[in-house]
Write a structure and sequence with these properties.
Blueprint lengths: L2 E5 L6 H9 L3 E5 L13 E3 L7 H11 L3 E3 L7 H11 L6 H8 L1 H11 L6 E4 L2 H11 L4 E5 L9 E3 L5 H14 L5 E5 L5 E9 L2 E12 L7 E6 L5 H18 L4 E10 L2 E8 L7 H10 L3 H9 L14 E7 L4 E7 L9 E6 L6 E2 L10 E7 L2 H14 L1 E4 L1
Length: 398
Amino acid sequence: MKKLMVLAAGLLQIPVIKKAKEMGHFVIAVDDDPNAPGMALADKAIVPGGLMNEEKMVEIAKEEKIDGVIHPCSEVAMNVMGRINDELGLSGVTKEAAIRATNKHLMRVAFETYGAPSPQSRCFNNVDVAWGAFCTDFQGDAILKPSRNSGSRGIAKISESIEGAEFARLFERAKEESRDKSVMLEQFVEGPEFSVEIIVWDEDIHVLQVTDKKTTEAPYFVELGHSQPSMFPQNIVEAVKRAAVMGVRALKVNNCACHAEIKVQDGQAYIMEIGARLGGDFISTELTHLSTGIDMVAAAINVALGIAPDLEPVAEPQGVAIRYFTPKPGKVVCIEDTQLLHRPEVYDSEIYVKLGDDVKEVKSSLNRSGHVIVTAPTSMEAISIAEALIEDVKILTE
């Protein structure tokens, strides 16, 4: 039995906690919220009173004599995880690599240095300097986004005809959402978006799957769904894979899961960002094992513990799709026809809101109101069923 420390114990971390216990490991869940849902599922729960306090977390890791640490589906405490790995000599990303993989400016610098394809990009703390650069150095539309955050928070598309006052408003919005209070100004890449699910072990990069993404339109680009395997032509899929592998090499991460986000414009793949972690939105924890038969969560746990991952399929691959409920903003007055979510193709579903709750405009992933995951012989069939369910199950607001 090995001891695995799981940083955070929210809903997105539960599959990792459950899987690690199923694999026979002793799981220590660490979260500042004693009521986080994963805490009760772990063998031991610790409330550190400062998950972001590196010194405190290193001390806890040493006291518990852990064999590995993982921070799945989140980037908030990646630096802490890297520091623990450094101090205890554990498998997994170093703090230096974790910083590169969570700071979008440093990430862009790494891509440029290595020659990995990514958009034109600049980083700013001052709105006036950013506005001047936009007016003189950029052509066409662009994107403003926090240099450190995830889940589509603070992202906005800006047109080349935008007024200075509106630019300033969106800049300050992105800055407010950024954990280091700096903002990225980037070339806007027009085209389909993908993610690539990867396991890195002993410097070998294993691409497990390519995910097709569905997002809202400008200005916020919130993800509304994902499907696997990709339905795009093979040449596009291969271009996406090549870009992702180059990006992982540029970041110099090792012994971890990676979640790369890629867009394709005119046949050219551009890396949006790469996280040295399992992807959120159930992509890594559910969709990938359903579409490939490979247990990506078990693989991520193993590499964190210094164990060679098993990347052979253990189940028959399927088509799979997730779609999110996004009702009109307002107060929830009725939720109807939820019995439709019990049909056999539905692998998992949840409605996040209840009667009387306020539904907000979808500006980030936090504003979604539920999900449904569907399996079928092909991804196209899974998408069709999932989108029909999103329409037929009613979340009515007023």
